[in-house]
Structures are given as C-alpha cells and as structure tokens.
Amino acid sequence: MRPLLKVSNVSRDFVKSLDVVAKFLNRLGQSYKEEIVHAVDDVSFEVFKGEVIGIVGESGCGKSTLGKMIAGILPPTTGTIHFDSVKKSGDQRPNELKTQMIFQDPFSSLNPRKKVVDILTEAPLHHGLISKSERRSFALEMLSRVGLDSEAMERYPHQFSGGQRQRIGIARALAVSPELLVCDESIAALDVSIQAQVLNLFVHLKQKYDLTYLFISHDIGVIEHISDRVVVMYLGRIVETAPIEIFVEKPNHPYTKALLDGVPRLEIGKRNYEPVSGEIPSPLEPPSGCHFHPRCRFATVYLQNF
Q: What is the largest CA-CA distance in the chain?
C-alpha cells in the first residue's frame, strides 16, 4: 500500500546567532563562530491513510519542528517530504492544503481582530474553494462539525473559552478539506476535563471524515489513547517506531522504557523499568552515535560510534 506521507532523511538546522559580547570580541580579533542547532536530524518514516501516528518525546526533542516541516510551515534543510507521492514544496498550492496544522495555544493561534466567520472562510475564499455568497453557510457548517452553534460566527476569539477556541482552530483546519492533520500538543493548554472532550472530538472527526493524524504530544497517556503507531524522538532523532501495542507492552529502546516508567499507573507491578539518569545533552553539541548513549546503562563503544 502506498503511504499518504513519506518523510525521507529529513533534517532541520537552526543557526544560533552570536551575542553582543561575541560580536565585540570578533571585532577585536577573536574567533567566534555562529553555532548550529540540529533540531531534527535525519528522520525517516511513513504514514498511511487513516492512521493516527503519535510522535512523543521530551521538550526540545524536535517533534514540533518536524510537524511544522510536514505542514509546510518550515522547509527542511535536507531530505524530502512527499504527500501522496508528490514532493511538498513549502507553499500553499492545492496539494499543500491537504496537510493542515492545529497548534498548541488556542489563545495565540487565532487572529484577535477577526470574527469567527472571517477566520473560518479566509483560506477557502482565498483558494477559490467557496464563493462569497456561500461564506456564512460554509462557516455554519464548519462550526457544527466541531460542536459550536451559529451564535459563534459574529464573535471574536477573546469571547470564547480555551476549549471553544481550540474547536474553532480545528474548524479552521477542516475548512480546506485536508487529509492529514498535524496536531501539535493540541490539547496541552486546556483543562483536563476539556482535554477529554477535544480528544473525543478528534476521534469522532477521524471516523466521520476519514482523516489521518500526526499527533504530537509529551503526554504518554494521550498517545496511548489515540495512536495506532508511535514514533519516539530524542535530541532530534527517532529512537524507536512501533505499533501502539508493542510500544506499551514491549518497548525496545531504553529511552522509550524510561518515558513509559514516568506515566502514573493504577496497576501495581506492571512495569519494572528504571528511571533514566543524567542530564539531556545540549543540542549544540549532541553526543556521537546514539544520542542517548551517555545516559544509557546498556551503552557500548559500538553505540557511541553508530
């Protein structure tokens, strides 16, 4: 079966600019160079239509940067991203609309100066998906999909709760009929009770509209609940990819075991993993070989150079 999304050897680097002191010392003859941060390092995986792929890892592991590249917001430094066998170009041509992103913060991801009806119809109007005469009926349809009524159309984002704003963000993403939704910590900023409601909405939308999800989260419980397969990232690299059953019951990589060991469980004695020791290395100077080897009790010389 042909994958809907194929990520091949994708990397993304950022340049850490010199501070004022370093620039001053450079003028005096000292040699200070700009540092390179390897946010995503040679990542490859595939996503098939109808799947929910969970991407999990600690803050700073590169999962959000990866999501932005897949959504076309950031271009990769190296590597390729193909959607339905077509290389993503980074612009917003019709093929690019098939991938949409739902952001973590519902408070900053919506334009505070626009009414909801304008937020939901801006992209469809721009790309010729609807006419101006269809604007209000289209916005009403999008709102109904996420459980909001017609009263929301003439209101501004600040007049809604966090959960309602995130529903509007979801409706905005659905407005261009995407096939793949990149959900970047999309429930992390919400209250726990609201998180469950929005998570159930994601499940409902997937079933009704045959959507494919790339669900980015640091919350293992959420990943376990919604994912079919899981991609585990550490310092910009993928350390393990597994079906959800294997991920939960028989994780292979020591870092995956450490992540699972940090999840509160009602069952006593279900797991006997040891917490990971040491500090996360700096992304400016990542370890050689497997990036996790300085903190791994199973590390060998081979892993340090792999």
A: 67
